[in-house]
Structure formats: structure tokens, C-alpha cells
Write the C-alpha cells for this entry.
Amino acid sequence: MDLSEYKYIIFFLTLIILVPFGVLMASTSKFFEKVILFMMIFFTCRLTESIHFVSREFYRGTSRGFEIGLVDLVSLVLFLVIIIRRGRDFKIRLIPPGSFIYFIYFALSLASITNSYEPLYSYFEILKMIRMYFYFWVLYNYFNSYDRIALAIHFIPAIIIYIFMVALYQKYRLGVYQINGPLPHQNSLCMYITILSTIMFSQLMNEKKASILKSAFIFLMFAMGSLLVFFTLSRAGMVCYIGGCLTVLLLSYASGFEVKKFIITGIIGVGAIIAVVSMINTVLKRFETAPVQSKITRYNLAISAVNMADDKFLGIGLNNFGVKVNKPWPYSKHLDKGDKKFKEGLVETVYLMIAAETGWLNLGVFVIFLLYFYIMNFVNIFRFVNTEYQYFAIGLAGGLGSIYIQSSLEWVLKQSPNFYQLMFCFAIIAAMMGIYKREFAVQQRKEEKEHDMQKLLEKTLNEDELRQVQVAAANARRQEN
């Protein structure tokens, strides 16, 4: 029996035995419930526990099998806990905000399969899209209070520390030039850690009640996240990360000036100078020695992607770029393929990837999907001014803006770890909006009730005064008589 067969056995034992056990424990124990949430978030950074059914490991595509991972299993546990405790602890919303846009994106992606040469590859990606929405749905319905969102944010340091330890081992023990940590690629790691690090930076700048010790710890997490970004030596990622941090910095000062923010900015500035001086040669070498052929390949693959999107209204088929970029399809006639056995890779931008595989229209829907949550997050920034929860939104504004731009040069947003993380961010954004609306409605009803009571009190007082006047008038008439 080989290793893959053991993985199947472990998977089905987990599904049949451990999932029901997890549901039982999490539905009766708050601690175990938190453990399940931690696993849902933590294991998005690694794919070791995932299993592929009908695997096509040698295919150069965005999905290579029907993938099911530990994150999906613990999501199923939390889903069943929410169902069991609905009405008591959870008020379920079947269609969370943004779902209809995602449904359209999903429907057009599904329709593109009519043009697929290998429909099986398309169904690999379809399953991934279903898993990601399920993950989003569970988290959105779970995050029905600020405390639960804060709990999820508090798990971030554990993920940063874990990735940092793996990265140190790779860099200084194995001598890896561009580290990728537990993620599939250095670009994946850069994009993944950007979100975590910008949230830590925002918490450092904006959390008002943090002690000096806690602030020092958060600063350490931000520093470790920043080092991880530069360890990847991802050119686009490093530039976009700096832009994300500057966004957090500007929004933090816009939300209110404090001496603490000025001090933190100064400390980070000094630390950044030291880091730049120590790493400048490595970073410059990375930019200066980048192969010209890489730039040419990116450009040529982008032309191929545009050719595909222009040729088919619904694209050439979801997850079929790796097939149709090669002969006998005509989309890459501009490429000089001396080696007939050579297979071209994937276009290095998630936006052109979506356009090529599912059409220009679906690219527009995807962009609307991204912007919908980004705008919602900006609204949250203004709604939560002077609260402890504003730093969630400010951190996400910097992080999401960074990965949106980086995605114009990388396709890794379609990889499971980064896709999970994107849906995690969207669940927080939508949940914050829902919580605010509920609490605002409660506060509004409370104010209306107080207003009605005041009116009733004034009316009662006026009636008492009227009776007093009437009694006085009656007494005056009696005296006259």
C-alpha cells in the first residue's frame, strides 16, 4: 500500500469519525469551538493535509485535481455547529452580501466549460470555487459579533510565527534563495503574508487600549511579516507590500492623530532604514539580474490570453489555459517554439487568466466582486471611527489594495491558500457591515423608544398642568359665588 492510499484511508476516517466527534465537542464546548475556528484559519497556509481525487499533478493549471483539505473538513464541522445552534447563538443569513455577484461569476465560469477541451480540468476548478464560497458562508455566519472577529484576528500571530520558522529553516538551513514557506510558491507567500502583516500594522497603529507589552508583541509580528515579504524577493510583491503599508499609515493618521502613532512611525522608520541597508544589495541584485526572457515570456503569454478572450465570448474554458496555449490551437502563433515538446506556462496575471478562460464579461464581474467588498470595507472605516474595531477595516484596506495590484502581475490568487484568505477577508468585511447595521438598528429603536417616553412624559405633565388649571379655575368660581 503506497502513501497515497494511506491518505485516502485517513481522509475517510476523518470524515466519518472525526467530523461527527468535532461537531459534538464544538457544539458543547466553547473552547473546542475556538479550536475549530483556529484550524479553519491556520491551515489555509499549508496544503500538506490536502488530498486530490483524480489527480493530474503534471498539468500546468490553476487546479490539478478534485482537492479536499483539512480546512474544508473543519469548515464542515463549524457549519454543522451553526446549524445545530441556529436561533440560539446564530441567526443564519442564507445569502450573505456579495453572493449574487459571486453566483454570476460562478455561472459564467460554469458556462465556459462548453468551450473546454478538457472538461475534467474545468470541474477541478469548479469544485474549488464551491469550497471557497462554503468557507466564506460559514465564516460570515459565524462572525456575528465583534468579539468573534477579534478572536480570529488574534490567531494571526500564530500563523506568522509558524511561517517565519519554516522560512528561517529554508533560508539558513537549506539555503533557499527565494523562500516560499509552507505555501506553493514565493509569490503565494508574499501575497498571503501581506494581508496578515498589514492587519498587524493597523492594529499597532490604531488599537487604543493596548499595553506597552502588547504593542511590542504586535510590532514584532509586523516586523516578522515584513521580513517574510522581503525573504521571498518577489519584485511585484515587495513594491505592492510597501504600498499597502503606506495605505495603512495614511488611513491611520486620517482617523485621528495621536502621539503614539507618531512614535510608532518613527520607530518603524528607523527599523526600515536598518533593514534596507542590510538587504539592499540582495534586493537590488534581484531587480538587476531578473532575466529579460522572463519579461518577454510574460508579455507573450499576455498576448495569448487576449487572443483567447477575443476569440470566445465565454472564453476557451475554465482551467484550460495550460492546454490551449500550446499547439494545435492558434492562440500562441506569435511565439517561437523551437522545441515541439515544450509546453508554455500560465499567463502571469489573474485578470487576463479569467478573461482568457471565461471571457471578458466574466472578468468584469470578477472585478466588480473585488471592488464591491473593497468599497464596503472603506465604508466600514468611516462607520467605525473612534472604535476599537476600526483597525480591522484599515488593515484590510491596505492588504487588499496591495494584493489586487499584485494580481495584475501574478495569478496566485487562484491558488487555494490565497483564495481561502481572500474569502476570509470578505467574510470579515461583510460581517462587520451586518453587525453595524444590527447594532445601529437596536440603537435607533432604543433612541426612538426614549423619544416616545419623553413625549409621553411631556404629555402627562401637560395633562397634570391642565388639571391644576381647571381645579384652580373651579376654586376661583366657587369663591366668587
Summary: Strands lie at 51-53, 66-68. Residues 156 and 196 are 6 Å apart (CA to CA). The mean pLDDT is 87. Residues 1-95+124-138 form one domain.
